[in-house]
User: What shape does this take?
Amino acid sequence: MLTIHHSKQLNKEVSIAISGSKSESNRLLLLQKLYSNIQLKNISDAHDVQVMQKALQSKSEIIDIHHAGTAMRFLTAYFAFANNKNLVLTGSERMQNRPIQILVEALQKLGAEINYTKKEGFPPLQISGKSNQEDVIELHANISSQYISALLLIAPKLKNGLQIKLQGKITSLPYLKMTLQLLEKIGVEFTFENNLIVVKPKQQIQNLQYTIESDWSSASYHFSIVALAENIQLHLKHFKNNSLQGDAKLIEIYKHFGVEAKLDKGVLSLQKKPNFSLPQHIEFNLIEQPDLAQTIAVTCLGLGINCSLTGLHTLKIKETDRLQALKNELEKFGAEVKIDDKRLLLKSVHPIAKNVQIKTYQDHRMAMAFAPLATKTSLQIEDPDVVEKSYPKFWEDLQSIGFSFTN
Ligand SMILES: O=C(O)C1=C[C@@H](OP(=O)(O)O)[C@@H](O)[C@H](O)C1
Ligand SMILES: C=C(OP(=O)(O)O)C(=O)O
Assistant: This one.
């Protein structure tokens, strides 16, 4: 349990180096395994990326990827067509309840040999590496974009490349585009028109040195701090114009909360506009930025703004049922929250309750999203180590901003 004290006096100006994007890192590590002549800088220090790195080097017959959903999906595709590999890919109890059938069926259609060792449709998976027999598949795109990215990443190494017909509304589209943009950077040719993606095969690539941009989802907690604090300026290092990360939309979103963001020479500077008048109610469709839902809901609570967040149908199959977890914890502060399977309606309250104890449900984003409320009141976070999944230095960075804690 970590108590974060009510931190009224934060440092006025602080520079922070968040490490590389978890999503970019996991994609590029897989591409590096497939092509070897890729050199990476600013790789994420997230636990989810460390497990990906370890798994790609592992000679073991059982690989445990813990809570890392992206790694689970990408590695399933990788091992399916890694010849002579025979292994079980497993994960935490939660991972064993995060669906993977859509991806497994697509891989089986291509010729993979994958069996469920426990529950049909969920990890653990018994995978026997094979060569692919087919190269055309259809796939439901509205559950997780990670299934599509997993297939796209291995596509150029398949005999004839891959043709994917996407069915339904594509969810988390920027992550799919990120995958395609990274394939483009290594010289893979593809087309993406009318829900049909065609990737050409490519056996070798030219040497590539690539610096991974810092993680925008991690940056979201700093946007929230700036929105909630009295008067503070944060400088976040190693960000890029023309980001590949959909969560760069934060710049637009947080304008509504009076946060001004400037990106100059790789440094993202955040500051609050003086005398900004806040809206009473705000609406966002987060179908393209699912990982920002928790941050935004808590910012709204802290600012006393009512909000309606939509496009959230994927939240219940992430690290926890994030819609239910948000409702449970936001209501502890006195707010009223309504949820259905894709929406959250928050009726804020002022002042918010003191000394609330936040449950984290083994979800890093629950801990990090609620922490900025310490600008308003003291609160307690259960199991603070969950942040390791994506942002191990989170508490250290908060300390450098001036937050104080008791264990
Ligand atoms: O491809 C990726 O790197 C990710 C895709 C998103 O998942 P879904 O496509 O399942 O929404 C996102 O929530 C996750 O944190 C990372
Ligand atoms: C959903 C997330 O990760 P993953 O799906 O990779 O476990 C996340 O980081 O918020």
In short: The chain is about 30% helix and 25% strand.
